Every structure is written in C-alpha cells, then in structure tokens.
Automatic annotation (TrEMBL):
Designated name of the protein: Histone deacetylase 8
Domain Histone deacetylase: 47-338
GO MF, any single term: histone deacetylase activity
UniProt source species: Mucuna pruriens (Velvet bean)
A single GO BP: epigenetic regulation of gene expression
Pfam families: Hist_deacetyl
Cofactor needs: Zn(2+)
Family in the record: Belongs to the histone deacetylase family.
InterPro entries, per database record: HDACs, His_deacetylse_dom, His_deacetylse_dom_sf, Ureohydrolase_dom_sf
Keywords in alphabetical order: Chromatin regulator, Hydrolase, Metal-binding, Repressor, Zinc
Length: 384
C-alpha cells in the first residue's frame, strides 16, 4: 500500500484484498455443477461457483453498513515459484499445461477454462498479499476476497472447484516468515481436506474443520473428514475434524465452537489465526445442508475475534472459500465480518426467514467428539 493508501486506511479496522480479474474465471452453465446439458431443459443454470458470488460480496462491503470500517487493497497474481511452497511442481505444471491447451476438467465440477488460470493465480497471490500485510505489521485483520476457492486443493491435485490452496499458501508464508504456530479454522460446509492434507504431518499448523458429514466423494477427495483423521507422525492430533449432523444451525455451531474449537485454540496458542470462511454452511445454500443464519455467522466472527485477541495478538487472516447462494452468502459474509470487528450492534437484519433448528442431535455429536479428544491421543487435549 502506498502512503496515500495508508493514510486512507488509518482508522479502518479491516483490510480487504481483492482484484477484479478474479471474475474472469468462467465456470459455464449446465445442470448445477456438472457442466452438462441433458438436452431437455429450457433453462440451464450457472455453475454454483460463478462470479456473481464475489461481485455481491464486493458490493455489500462497499455499499453496506460495514463499509466505513473497511479499506481496500489491490490483489496481485502469485508467481509460479511461490506456488511450490504448498503444491508439487508436477501438479503446477499440469495446471500450466492445461491452461496452454485451452482448458481441462480436472475433476467433477472443476473446470479450468480460458481465463481460469489467471484468476487462480490472482486468488493465490491476493491471499499471499493479505497475509504479508499482517506479517509486516501493517494491520491486524485482513480478508482475502478470492475465487476460485482453495481449501479442497491438495498439494498434488485439484478438487471441489479449487485449483490452488489460497489459505494453505498463506499459512506456509507465515511459517516461512518465522511464525512458529498457525491455526486454521474452516467453517465452509465442506471438509477443508486440501488444507488438512498440506499440513497433515506438521504440528506447527493446527487445522480445524467444521463441516457436514459428507464423506469422501471420489478420486479427487479420498479424505472422509471423520474424527479419526487426526494427522500423521508429528502432525498426529493437529488435524481436528468436526463433522456436524445435517441441519446444524446457529446454536449447534456456537456449541461446537465453545466446546471444541475455543479450548483447542487456547491449548495450541497460535501466532496467527486463519479463518477459512465459506457461506455454504448457511440455511439457504444449494451445496450444503446446514442451517447457519446471519446471527450464527456474527457469533462465530465474534468468537474468532476473541480468540485472535487473546492468543494471536489480534492477528487474523480471513480467506474466502465457498458459499453459493448469491444473495445470502454476501449477507452472511457481512455478518461474519461484523462479528470479527466486534461491532456492538447488528448492522444488518436477516433479509429472509430461516428454518427451525433442532440442536439436540448436534449437541450429542459434539459431546461424543469431546470425549474422544479427551480419552484419545489428541496431544492438545491430553491433560484436560
Ligand atoms: Zn464448500
């Protein structure tokens, strides 16, 4: 950021990193995310991971009531060597070649089309810039507003609309810059398998993922997201999966945070926290079966704010992941950031009604996970 930018940003509480070029990733139309036209429908829908999502997020952050708290920073493309801190050279080469050849379907629903690779590089570079901003001490809270999303992208393969692991690259940058411990909290409705895989053998990165219990979904996603996937070697006990029953809403998520996420972060003591924020855990998402509303996202944001204040000197990087209902996702993100900024009053009311929540089953599941952590070999929980 230049001096003028720094002056403009003074007094603002959140830095957003964004680049318009990310809308150029065109995922096409078809039956939901298949890219296929069965030939008998009059109206084909946009692929759920389309640019309308981020256009509405940009819009609500610029025109919504949170706008005075935000300053804007221009993202930038990642350089190929930067990608190798998380991804294998063979995989990066596969993506470069796919782009040169005019595109490729890398796995189900995941289309690298003309323009996609440049957008993916922008998403990765923008997440790196946002992290660097925090590491250089220029701010405490940054939000990388990026697409394509990243948390399913593993070191050597694409998965679930993701090519490059934006959050994973940012975490690795923090470690390479001298941070000893980084915690990732992933609230996207799907298992953050790519980020988990990248740090599966490391005790320097605590990856926590709250997701619906979707299991594996084919060769690109062999991980199950179950409680047993705890990490390996030195990393054993540093990947905590919290699969929540379908229909878990605000109360269930807050309970899971208070009972599992908060104590784990307390025991781990990270130098920096990364929140992988997906809004597909909302009540209206076509890609998820959970029931979070603005209130729940706001409360999660507030809990993460408290965790960052207590444990990481306030340093928090938020990285955009999924979220496919183009109206509600923008509102949910706005509410999450309200919570993260610990603003005293809700700035936005929920524009649409929500489904009722039955929190009795999620509470049982969360209690069972907690017992498992306590009696099992999760190092962080051993003495509790
Ligand atoms: Zn997702």
């Amino acid at each position: 950021m230049d001096d003028a930018g720094a002056a403009c940003g003074r007094g603002k509480q959140m830095e957003v990193f964004w680049h318009e070029g990310m809308v150029e990733h065109d995922t096409g139309n078809g039956v939901f995310d298949t890219g296929m036209d069965p030939g008998f429908l009059e109206v084909l829908e946009k692929h759920p991971e389309n640019s309308d999502r981020v256009r509405n997020i940009v819009s609500i952050l610029k025109r919504g009531p949170i706008s005075p708290y935000i300053s804007w920073n221009l993202g930038r493309p990642a350089l190929i060597p930067e990608l190798l801190s998380f991804h294998t050279p063979e995989y990066v080469n596969e993506l470069v070649e796919a782009d040169k050849e005019g595109g490729k379907m890398l796995c189900a629903g995941t289309f690298l089309n003309p323009g996609s690779w440049d957008a993916a590089l922008l998403a990765a570079g923008t997440a790196l810039s946002a992290m660097k901003h925090l590491l250089d001490g220029h701010g405490k809270v940054a939000y990388a507003l990026v697409r394509p999303p990243g948390h399913h992208a593993q070191p050597s393969r694409a998965d679930g609309y993701c090519f490059l692991n934006n959050a994973g690259l940012a975490v690795q940058l923090a470690l390479d810059s001298g941070c000893k411990k980084v915690a990732v909290i992933d609230i996207d409705v799907h298992y953050g398998n790519g980020t988990a895989e990248g740090f599966y053998r490391s005790n320097k990165v605590l990856t926590i993922s709250l997701h619906m219990n979707h299991g594996t979904w084919g060769p690109s996603h062999p991980q199950s997201g179950s409680v047993d996937e705890l990490g390996e070697g030195e990393g054993y006990g540093y990947n905590l999966n919290i699969p929540l029953p379908n229909g878990t809403g605000d109360k269930g998520y807050v309970y899971a945070f208070n009972e599992l996420v908060v104590p784990s972060i307390q025991k781990f003591g990270p130098d920096i926290i990364v929140l992988a924020a997906g809004q597909d855990s909302s009540a209206f998402d076509p890609n998820g079966r959970q029931c979070l509303t603005l209130e729940g996202y706001r409360e999660i944001g507030r809990i993460v704010h408290v965790l960052a204040t207590r444990h990481s000197d306030g340093r928090l990087l938020i990285v955009q992941e999924g979220g496919y209902q183009v109206t509600y996702s923008a509102y949910c993100l706005h509410a999450t950031l309200e919570g993260v900024l610990n603003l005293p009053m809700p700035l936005l009311s929920d524009p649409i009604a929500y489904y009722p929540e039955d929190d009795s089953f999620p509470v049982k599941v969360i209690e069972a996970i907690k017992k498992n952590y306590q009696k099992d070999k999760v190092p962080l929980w051993r003495d509790s």
